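Subject: Phosphohistidine phosphatase

B.,
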Amino acid sequence: MFELDADAFDEFCDHLLVRDNITEEYVGCYRMLPPDSAAAAGGYYTATEFDISALDPVANRIVEMGRACVDPAHRTGSVLSLMWSGILHYLELTGYEWVMGCVSVPVLPSPDSIAGADVRGVRDFVMNKHASPGSRRVIPRNPVVLGGLTLDEIAAPERVTMPPLLRGYLRMGAMICGEPAHDPEFGVADFVALQGLHSANKRYLERLRSAAAAHESGIG
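Prediction pasted inline below.
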């Protein structure tokens, strides 16, 4: 049985839905919070977890993405690709230039894993390969500390497991804006990803545009 995930930001957001053309069931959703709606909501959701004042220079051009959800039976990657193509279309329609979102990494992905190890591995990888400039670093309000240990004190795994949503951001060319915040309610660590449309991976964008065109014509 699935539970409804709702919060005070939902009513201010535009909502992106992916529907299976055969079953007519909704199989994916994402919400988008543009700047004017963020102002009406009292700010971005991301600001509840981070001090995002370093992003103020581009704040009036940022659309915040959040609460991505894909039906377990459709987690092959195609739904997420369609969602990204929808986001791209939304940016083109509205004229906004930046996408920001919290990307979650489970603190304890399995009962036999070490708490925080995957978060440490992901943190090391993204901050080494995809870190934002120092001028665009956010500050977590609740840094990851597990069992009295900071991330630097938790051993990284031999192999890094990258969540699909984070992988999609990185393929687009997104930068990660600093250390993660701990969200104990959901048992995750959240990273802030920031993507400028002007600096996006052009080849990946074309793939997304093709996916959207195929879907609209009934091919996909």
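The mean pLDDT is 88.

T.
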